[in-house]
Design brief:
The structure is a single chain. With 335 residues, the chain is mainly alpha-helical. It is built from ten helices and three strands, in the order βββαααααααααα. It has helices at 61-74, 76-109, 115-149, 156-160, 164-199, 201-226, 229-235, 244-252, 255-288, 292-332; strands at 4-7, 34-36, 51-54. Strands 1-3-2 form a three-stranded antiparallel beta sheet.
Length: 335
C-alpha cells in the first residue's frame, strides 16, 4: 500500500499531471516522487485536504488492478455517474442512428435519395459522435479514478460537465495514436501488394505474407508505445498535443510495455474462459430442453451476461490504465 506523506504545500493549477517532490512537504525525509492529489481548474473536487503519497517504481499488474478497484470504490458515486452518463449518451446516439437509417431507407424508397450514400453518411456521422462520447467517458472516468486514488470525492456536477476544448484535445490525441498505428500498416499493405503484383509466382505470396507479418508487428509495437497518449493529453494539459505521443512512449518504455503485454494475455485468457463457460451452459440447456423457446432464452441470457462482463472488463481496464499513467508519470516524469 502506498504510504501517505502529508499535505500538499503547493499545486500546479493548469495540469492534473503528477508533480515531483518539490511541491510537497517531505516531513524531514529525502524527497521522493509523489502524486499530487489535487483538483485542476477544469475539475474542481470536494473541499477535502489534498494528500500526497510515494509511488512504487515497479508497478505490478495485479497490484494496479487492486489499486484501481480501491480507487473506484473510494469515489464510487462519481465513477458510476460517469459511466451512467456514457451509457445514456451512447444509447441516445444509437436511437438517433436507427431513426436516421430508417429515414434514409424511406427516402430511398421514395426515390428522393441514394440509399447507399445516405446510409454511409449516417454511419460516418454516428462514428464521429461515438468518438466524442468515448473521449467524454475517458475524461470523466479517469478523473474520477484519480480522485478516488487520492482519497477524494469528485463534485459530480462539475465532473460530468462537458468541456469542448478538453474533449477535442483528448480526441485529437486518440486520432494521432490511431494514425501512427494505421498509416504505416496501410503503407506496408500497399507496398507488399505492389511488389507481389510485379513479382508473380511463389515470391509474390511470400512478399504478401511478410508484409502482413510486419504490419501486425508494427501494430503491436505502436500500441505498446502509445496506449497512454489520451491520458497524457488529459492529465498533462500543458504539454503540446504532438508531444503526447513521445511522452506516452517515454512512460511505457521498459516495464510499462511488459505491464500491457501481461494485461493483454490475461484478457485473452478471461475471454476464452467466459466463452467456454457460455458454450458449456448452452450445450447443457440444449441437452435438457431442446426447444426453440429455451434456445432463445439461453441466447438472450448469454448475450446479457456477455455484455455485463464486457462492461465490467471495460471499467477495470479504463481504471487500470489511469493508475498506470499516474504511477509512470510520477516515477519517470516528463520527457
Amino acid at each position: 500500500m502506498p504510504q501517505f506523506q502529508g499535505p500538499v504545500a503547493s499545486i500546479q493549477p493548469d495540469s492534473y499531471a503528477p508533480v515531483t517532490s518539490a511541491a510537497f512537504v517531505s516531513a524531514g525525509t529525502n524527497p521522493q516522487p509523489v502524486i499530487a492529489a489535487h483538483p485542476t481548474s477544469d475539475f474542481p473536487t470536494a473541499n477535502q485536504a489534498p494528500l500526497a503519497y510515494s509511488e512504487p517504481s515497479k508497478y505490478g499488474l495485479f497490484f494496479a488492478i487492486g489499486e484501481a478497484t480501491r480507487a473506484i470504490f473510494a469515489n464510487v458515486l462519481a465513477y458510476v455517474m460517469a459511466f451512467v452518463a456514457s451509457i445514456l449518451l451512447t444509447g441516445i446516439v444509437y436511437v438517433l442512428l436507427a431513426i436516421a437509417l430508417i429515414a434514409a431507407l424511406a427516402s430511398s424508397l421514395n426515390g428522393t435519395s441514394n440509399a447507399i450514400i445516405s446510409i454511409i453518411g449516417v454511419v460516418i456521422l454516428a462514428l464521429v459522435v461515438l468518438s466524442f462520447v468515448n473521449a467524454y467517458t475517458l475524461i470523466t472516468a479517469s478523473v474520477a479514478v484519480a480522485d478516488g486514488k487520492a482519497g477524494r470525492h469528485s463534485i459530480i456536477k462539475k465532473l460530468l460537465l462537458p468541456r469542448p476544448r478538453l474533449l477535442l484535445r483528448v480526441l485529437g490525441a486518440e486520432a494521432l495514436a490511431g494514425l501512427i498505428i494505421i498509416v504505416p500498416l496501410l503503407v506496408l499493405v500497399i507496398l507488399s501488394s505492389v511488389l507481389a503484383a510485379s513479382g508473380g509466382g511463389g515470391g509474390a505470396a511470400a512478399i504478401v505474407i511478410l508484409g502482413g507479418l510486419l504490419g501486425v508487428a508494427w501494430v503491436i509495437i505502436a500500441a505498446l508505445r502509445f496506449a497512454l497518449t489520451p491520458y497524457v493529453a488529459l492529465f498533462d494539459q500543458s504539454l503540446p498535443l504532438l508531444k503526447t505521443l513521445g511522452q506516452s512512449n517515454h512512460l511505457l518504455r521498459g516495464g510499462g510495455q511488459w505491464f500491457l503485454i501481461k494485461g493483454f494475455l490475461i484478457a485473452i485468457i478471461v475471454y476464452i474462459l467466459i466463452s467456454f463457460l457460455g458454450g458449456s451452459s448452452s450445450a447443457s440447456t440444449l441437452g435438457s430442453l431442446n426447444t426453440a423457446q429455451s434456445l432463445f432464452g439461453n441466447v438472450i441470457a448469454n448475450n446479457i451476461a456477455g455484455s455485463i462482463l464486457s462492461l465490467l472488463f471495460g471499467i477495470i481496464s479504463q481504471a487500470v490504465l489511469t493508475v498506470l499513467y499516474l504511477n509512470r508519470a510520477a516515477v519517470r516524469g516528463t520527457k
